[in-house]
Each structure stands twice: as structure tokens, then as C-alpha cells.
Here is the input.
Amino acid sequence: MSAPRPPHLPTTLDCITCGLCIPTCPTWQQTGRESQSPRGRVHLMRAHQEQRLPLDAVYAQEMEDCLVCRRCESVCPAGVSFGALMETTREELVQAGYRAKPSMRWLLAQVRHRKRLHWGMGLLGWAQRSGLVRHMGTLAQAMPAVPPSSEREPLPDFAGAHSPRVGEVWLLEGCVMPELYGRVNRAAMRLLQRVGYDVRVPKPRLCCGALHAHAGEGDVARNLVRGWVQLLEDVGAPDAIVSTSAGCGAHLAELPRILASDPDLARRAEALSNLVIDASAFLARRENLERLRPLLNPLPEAWLPLAYDDPCHLCHGQQVRVQPRELLDAIPGVHRVELLEAEACCGSAGLHSFAHPEAARTQLASKLVDLEQSGAATLVTANPGCHMQWETGQRTSTAPRPVRHLMEVLAASLG
Amino acid sequence: MPSPALAQDLRALLGPQGFLEAHPQRLSYESDALGLVAQVPEWVLLPSDTQQAAECMRLLAREGVCVVPRGAGTGLSGGATPVAGGVSVVTTRMRKILDIDPVNRLARVQAGVVNVELSRAAARHGLFYAPDPSSQMACTLGGNVAENSGGPHGFKYGQTSRHVRGLVWVDARGEIIDQSDARLDPVGLDVLGLWIGSEGMLGLVTEVVLDLLPSPEVSESMLAIFGSLQAACEAVTELIASGLQPSAIEILDKLTIDAVEASVFAAGYPKDAEAVMLMDLDGSPAEVRELGEQLETILKAHGSRELRRATDPEQRRRLWAGRKGAYGAMGRLAPDLYVADVVAPRTRLAEIVALSTAICAELGLPCANVFHAGDGNLHPNISYDRRDADQVRRVLLAGQRIMAACVERGGTLTGEHGVGLEKRDAMCMVFRDEDLAVQERVRQALDPGRRMNPGKMLPVRGCREMRTRSPYLPGMKEYDA
Amino acid sequence: MSRSTIQSVEQGLAQLGAPVQTDALPIAQPRNESELQAILALAAESEWRVLPCGLGSTWPLVHLPEFWDLGISTCGLEGDIQFDPGEGVLTAPAGTPWSQIQDVVEAQSGRIAPYQGLQPKGSLGGLVALGLSGPERSFVGALRHRVLGLRVMLADGSVARIGGKLVKNVTGFDLPRLWTGSRGSLGVILEASLRVAHAPAEQHLLRLRACDLTQAAHLCERFHAERIPCASLQWNETEEGAVQLEVWCIGSAGAMQDTLRLVRRCLDVDEHWTEEAAQQARAAWAGAWRLAPDADQLVIGCQPSEWPALAVALANDLDLLGIPYAVRALPGCAEARVRWPHLPDAVTPALQALQDGLEACHASWQWFGTHAMAGTFGPAPAPGLAWAQESLRRQFDPQGRFQPRPRA
Here is the structure.
């Protein structure tokens, strides 16, 4: 109020320590420790900002353990932007020399180069098929099965709308998505075409930088955004930029905030942010759903009932909760059940499941119980990270259930 | 200062997850939800069951270390503020629901179980746990026992103390006192009753046996919209005098409505109302219908311009989420919030609400009111920024004046948040030295070494002495309405 | 206990000028608090054992002179009954007869739970000291949840206020709860504030004739399982030895409409009274004890689900003893009262026989009778709890002024 707020981390002051966020936090649930809860972390950030707490390894670890699932934001009555705070904090930590593990840094470096990632995945796929992967590092072993190269083909640059054409959209290809779940992107493309949109996948195929921003590599993330802004200005704006990955969508929708330190870029990025929308939210827009509904056919009986698990960055990051359910319910003869804690994190959390496999497994365990109890035959998700994590869980399950992206399910229903 | 040998023993007992000594980890425990006071504890201990808690306490007793028990740290009176040189013992790793007995409607839980989790577990048996403090999403049942927490539905169902059937607690020596046999009445002196609301000064609670109630056949929520806060308070006074018993009667004023409606808990309260009254009606179908009609008559007579009734669970949840998130939503007004917890005689609600608003206005502070009207338990909420020393001074002054004004009119300091550190010296507004000496006997009996949560609740100096120094204590009559 | 000590108690009291009655014990009746202080000072000096009491409604049940030198009754202390119906709080001197309190409360459409229409004897302070909750417990809650505040005098003559006069209050330790049911062992209660409920719009009494205790217990279990919100279920034996079950329902007209429908689904009611008639029927019920009024009495509390087991235990164990007894049960409020004539020699085996059965039902119980079993009969508190109780007692009464004389 009267005292000026320091230039960075201004929003730590929004927290009035009511504590309502605490029980929703996955790391608190595992440890019961205040400094592993959102309120505790904000408290430490504020203490650091007030120069009562120097950066040290313990502080760095408490921050690094956070999944940035942002569930705390969904219950915060004071409206603390926890995700943004955490990104700023991590960036500060990285600058102070508290960097992620080398393997994670390596992974981040791969992710942002589509070609490198493609070759790397090809190599990994070969190692998996030949059995060589057993002699590789834990990181390689933790990776899901890489599909054959035919499924890893990049999306075409353009696909025309089925008539009647109503507009043009861009489809965000993503990084991991085309490599592991190319079928999802193709499904989304088909759906968009059928609903009447020309689908463009502009070149160069850029990474959104979400994972980098979460890991505190702010400069990398900002550079990638510059590329995106330039691309949009060069090519010209479509009706929407559609994402099949909740993490990318949430990141790109919040660019002005992320770029607060560069007001000029932030202004330019606003146009981009306003266009970005999750595929589910886009298809569930009334006019689109009306065109989609008559195209949908019943699903195979064996798939039912379905259970939809909210990806964190869709429900907490973009407030998209109802739309995926509306789309599923639009399928004729569908039977959908609710998971008990659908909005709890599955443990994937970007690179978290690679950096902290043990914690991620614990996190997933209770979700698996919920799935079991729901009686669902298919688990539906809407984000590649969650997709991978759920599939990992199914590999060790006694009664494995198929995991499908929402777009796959809808496309299957197109017949 | 505790010794390194003690640290070693505790580390061996609790492991790295249960024994925190790194500075950032300890720093996060320096305050509870009362951010005004802070003290970094020497260590933080997180035992995982009764036996481990008792072993911790025995080790701490060896060197006479002071202990501050803590649950989720959602207390608003500084009851869990650590003491210098002491340790915090935290129950958040004791989160198991040990047993639910649907036949006798009893639940046995570890002290760190979050209030709302018990309600969720009980719902499967068509039962519910009645005390529902607004922090119920986060606060622990052990903390509820220590503070004798209330909540909106306390109006009909009573506070925590009415629902506790048994306790297991550990005293300062590390002895386990097991009172968990859930007898209907105490055998001999009612130590259990005394323990509830003892603010961590008698020991550390590790397990609780609680009564569960059958979920009402029908529940309906009613939102009455008022053009004036005064009128809403008067309506409450009359409906209590008429003997009507909704299960909760809450009032939110305009400032609160604005904050809530801007938050994730927006409940659809009309923004042009000066006050809304939120009620729950529980019971059999005919009972709820009749009560609804009776309430409607009184509320309309007092100028309620609109009544909304909701029976759909989702609509009801939304209406209540707004009320429960009100405290946090105030974070939108300023970085810090001071929440008073005074109780007014229910016949003088309107007078005391007006008075507290006037006291704040005089000191140039914003005052939002959201309160348990049915019990006369007021929560004037004062937004401020603790970095501004003069604001802090004025806020504390306002708090003292509101308490003094309330006590003078037959009210008291606290209805559910506890005395803690924040209202400790104000105890002298309510009690004389002779009365406090009796309270002191309780501590002397169960914790003669005064190691449990020292410096809380009971004034450390005599009231006679303090009265000569403080302008706010009664006797000075500095404040007069 | 020698006769000469008692003489000197009377002489001592006479010197103070306080009114004294002599029953089994000399009973001082101080007229104000300074007189009470003087008596306590004298008692301290002479090391008397003092029994605080009210109107003496439980005296005949106590074998007094063996344990106490002096009784102090609070019924001589002056003060007004204050009752504010809008607030729902009543404050009165401890010695006020309960019947008088009921009259005041009922005149202003209030309802004060314990022994509504049942026990005109006894004083406010006595009831609080015994912690008796009465037959409407399941409807309004136990007495210890309704005592809001007290003024008390300790053995050293100091007067303190504990609690307050507000329905919601956590200012300081909850000492009123410690004192409720403390049976005079901590000090003398001078004044009490209670929470008063609003009188219900309707009351109904439904009677089922020829229903034995076992049958009643099963019905109670069923009412509990089906969640029928009646105020109480009462089983008793009439003067003529007939057995009957009574269901007492109170509440708003709407609530009664639904409750009565549920009750009728469980039993074929023989009689149905409403309002005043019900009140009268209830008063008549109050007097219906088959045994003499000075019989020993045991009050048992137990979970509704344990009622069938308790009924069996009572029937089996007491019948075996061959002493006459009467049971008045409030299974709906989880309370039972068992009475038998004052037969000192028969009591010990009777209680011992019952103890196992009561323990098996997780019951709690209070003994109102000869002190032959005082301190030895009852579920033994766990060692930790016993320590806590003893420490508290010693803090309030370090000289043991209010404790019975230990048996030789």
C-alpha cells in the first residue's frame, strides 16, 4: 500500500497466509512439511525478497520439488499467481547457479530443437526395439515406447477444411507430442477439418518454451516467444491457435505476464496469447460443437465407461473443466464416470516425473486407486505429459486400461 | 539452547523427514496465520504417530526444551507462534483416519487429519462431522480440539467441544494420556472437557475420537439480501428470540461481498447489496418447509429485499464456498488481514457491529464484516500492510478498542479463534487477577514446568500492573461510544 | 469419627452465627459469601472435611458422618434469577431450587433441559456438580455442554469467575466443564450460567404398554439405526409393576409431522398425548418408582448400539442377586437408572456383579449411594488420566478439604 513493492515477486504480498492451498499441494501431501506447501514456498520467497533469507541449496531444493501443477491457484481466494511466482523464483535460482541436474538440462536442450528431438527419439526407438535400452541410463529407461517412424512424421503444413469452410486455425504441433503421440495431432487435425476449418501448421515448427520457463530458463523461453510473435506477425493471424497440449496452451495464453520485464514484446505477444486455445475449448464452442455433434458415432463398447482426468494446466492453468466433458458427453451412447480427485496432479508435471521418478510414482499411486474405484475402462486425458505418466502407471497395473487423448477418442467417434 | 546430543537423538528417532533443522525449512514455521508475530523455532519435529510423539516429548523433557504444538498453522491468534529457543511439534504427518464406526457414529482420527477429509470420509456412511470452521479445507482436527473451533454450523450443532468423545494426548513429560474409550460421560473429573480449547498449553493431542451426526434428510440454503447491515443484524436478533433454528446464520457485508465476488469463490452474491445473510435449513421435509416460511416472514419484515433459496447441492456448495473463502479473498484488498473474533450478546449485535465499524473509521482503517451472526460471534476484518508500522499500530489499537467495547457491553474477546498471543493481555479486560489465578492452577497441575506453549493465553504479568500502563484495558474508559 | 468432633463443629459454627441444621451431619447455611469464607477458614483451621451441597436432595443416599465433618449448603446464599430469553442464557445462585428455575424459564417460553418436569427437587448448583443431563439429552445435549460459566469459591476462600454468560466463548481454559460433574471435589459453586433452549412448539408422548426391557432395548436400537429424531425413549415400571415404553417427541410442528410418522412405522402406539396432557403424564411418571425414595441409585450411560447387551446384563446380573430393584431407562438418551433399597451388605456384591457387564458395554456410570464403594467402584481410569485428575484436584484443593475421609 504505502511502501512501494519491490520490482520482482510483487505477488508474494497477495498471500495472506490463510492456508487453504496447503492440503491440495502434492508435495505437502507427501511430506507434511510447510516449506513443501504453496503457502510455505510463498513465505520463503517473501522472506528472501525481504532479505531475511539468502539463497541456499535447501531453499533451491524446496522450490525445485514443486510440480507447478498450480492446483493451489484454483483454491486461492486471494488470487496469488503461484505459477508465475515459481517461474520467477526458479529463474533467479538458475541465475544464482542453482541449476537443474545435467540430465534435465540436456533434455531441455533437446526439446526445443525439433530435428534433434526427432533423431534422438528415432535412436531411442531403435534401442527399445533392440533391447539395448536396458543398458542405457535411467532417463532412457523411463521413456515410453517410441512409436514407429511412420507415426512420427511431422504434420503437413496445411490441410483443407471439409465444406462448408468456416475459417482457418493454426495447430500447435508441440515437441513431445509429434514424437510420441503423432496420432493425437492427426486426430485433432481431422476433427478441425471436419468441423470446417483450414488447418495450418506454420513453419518453422517452434517449441513454445513452457518447459524452459518452468525450469527457470527464462531467457530461452523468451527467445522462443520472440520467434512466435515474429511468426504471427509475418504469416498473419488465423481465427485461433489450437493446442492439443495443456502445458503449451497454458504457457502461451499467459505470455504478457511472462514477458513483464520486456513491455514491448509483451504488448506484441498479447495478440498471440489471445488466439491460443485448447483444442477441447475450441471444439466445445457452441457453433463448433453444433457442427461436430451430428458427425459423432457410438464408441466401441469395450472402451466404456470413460473417465476424464483433468490435466493441471488445463483446469488450473486455463480454467478448462467443463468443455472436455461436454465433448465426451456429445458422443452418442457414451457412458462417462468421474474420478474422485480428477483435479489432482498425476505426477507428470512436465519434466518432474523424469527428475523425481520416486515422488512421481507416489503421486500417481493414489490416482491409480481412484481410477480403479471409478470402474472406468478408458482413461481420457488431454496433455502428452499426463498421457505418458498414466501409461507408465498402466504398465505395472494388474488390470491395465488404455489411456487415450480426448482428441483420439473424438476422432475415433467420427468413424 | 538445546544440545547437539539432543538433536542427534531426535534425528535418529524421526529421520530427515521428521526432524527439520535447515534454516529455510524452520523459517517457514515462524508464524501461523497471524503474520504479525514471528519467531523461527530451534527445530521442527514432525512425529508420525502417538508413540513417536511421546518419545519426542520425553527427549525434549530431558533438557527442559519448550514445545509449541502446531497443526496446519491456520490459527488466527498466534497460538502456534514458536517461542525463542523452543521447538515446534507439528502434526501434519499424522494424517490417518484410523476408524469410522457407522453404527455408533464415531470416528477415530490422528490429530493431523484435515477437517474436511473427515467429513468426506463420513459422507460415505450418510454421516457428517458438524464443526466446520471456514478454514476447514486446511485446518487439522487436532488444531480444532486445541482451539475449540466453531464455524457457521456451530449455531445449531455446537462447537468442537460438543463433538469430541475421546482424546489421546501426550503431556510435557512425554506420558501418553489415553482417554479414547469414548464413554458417554466422564468418569471422575472431566479432563477431556478441560483439554478442549486449552490452546496447546496442556500437551500435544495425537488422536481424537469424534461424534458424527446423521446427514440431514433435507438441506436448503437461503440467501437474504439486505439494503443495510443494521437491518440484517436486527433480523438475526429477532429470529433468535423467536426460537427459530436454522443450522447456520452468517452475515457478509458489502466490502466482503466485493472481495468474494472478485475471487475464485465468487458465489453470485449481489454486488449492490449492503449485506447478505446466508442460512442453512436442515431437517425433515416438513420441518424445513415450515422453517423456511417462518424465516421468510421475519426476514421480509426486516426489509430483506430478496430471498434466494437453493436445494441443489452444487448451488449450495457455491453459496457456501463464497463464505468460506471470504477470509482469503480479503487478500485482494491488502497484503495482511487482522481478524477480530469478539462475541457480542446476541441482543446487541447491530449496536456492536456499528461500533466496530466506527472504531475502524475513526482510525482510518477499512473494516469488512463477515460473521457467525447466530452465535453473536463477530469478525470485523481489518485490511492492512504489515510493512507500514503506523498501520500496524492503528490496527492493533482498533483490535483492542473493539474488544474493550464488546466486553463493556457484556461480550467477550474470542468465540472460536482462541486467545493465543494476540489477545493474551486483553484477558485482563474479562478476568481479574483472582480469576486468572484459577486458570493458572490448571497449567500448574498438568504442566508445572511451563514448557507447553509458554507465553500464550495467560497474561505473563498481573492485570493490576498492566492496567496502570495500558490505555485500552477497562477501568480507563478511554473509549466511549 | 468421634461424637466430640461433631459437637465442636456445631459449636464452631454457632460462634460464627451462621444458621446450622443438623441432619446426619451438621449443615451450615451461610447467608452470604463472607459467612461462607469464614466457615471455610474455620474448617481449614480445624481440618474438617467439608461436603458442599444444595438442597440436600441426595443426602439420604449418602452415608455421611463416616466421611464428612460438615456440610455447607448454598441454598441460603442470596441472589436473583436472571433470564434473558432473547439471549438464551440464565444465571442464578447455585442454591436456587431447580423447580423455581424451571418456572421462570417456562414462563418466558424457554426450555431448560435437565429433568424437565421430572425432578422438582434439587438445586441448580447440585445439578451442575453432579453433571446430570436429564432425559432430553439426545435432543438438547448433555448438561456439561450447556454450563456457560460459574462463580466458585475455593477451599482458601478465594472467589473466581470461570467461563462467562455467552453462548459461544473460548476465552481461557474451559473450566466450567471441569467443574460440571466434579461433585464438590474442587470447591463450592456459588452461581451458574446455563444455556437455555427455546420451548418447542409441540410435544408428544406416545406410550406402548406391556413392553419389557429387552424389547425396549431393541426398539431403541432400531430408532437409532433408522435415525428417528425423537427426544427420548423411556422405559419404566409403574407402581403396579407393569412395564411400558414411552416415546417423547418435541419440536416444531413441521418436525413433529415427520417424526410421528416415523415413530408409528416402528411401533403400534397404545396412547398418544399432546401438550399439557403429556406434561402431566410425564410428571406422574416422575413419581413412579417402585422402591423407597431413599434407595441407592446407579446411573449408567452407554451407546445406543450397546443397549440390547446392557439390558441383558441388567436382567441377568441383578436377578441373580435376589435383591429387589427397579430400572428406569432412557435408552433414547443412552442413560439408565437402577435403584435398589439401602442394603449396605448387599450393595458391594451387586455392584461387583454388574461391573463386568457394564465394562463389556463400554458404559460409564455414577454411583449415588452409600460410600461403601466410593472410589473403588467404577471403571478405573487409565493411569495417565488418574494422574491428571489427581493433579488437578490437588491444585484446587491442596488440603483435601472437599475430599471424603479415606476409609480406615
Remarks:
- Residues 1-6 of chain C have pLDDT under 50 and may be disordered.
- Chain C touches chain B through 79 residues (CB under 8 Å).
- DSSP finds twelve helices and 19 strands in chain C.
- The radius of gyration of chain C is 22 Å.
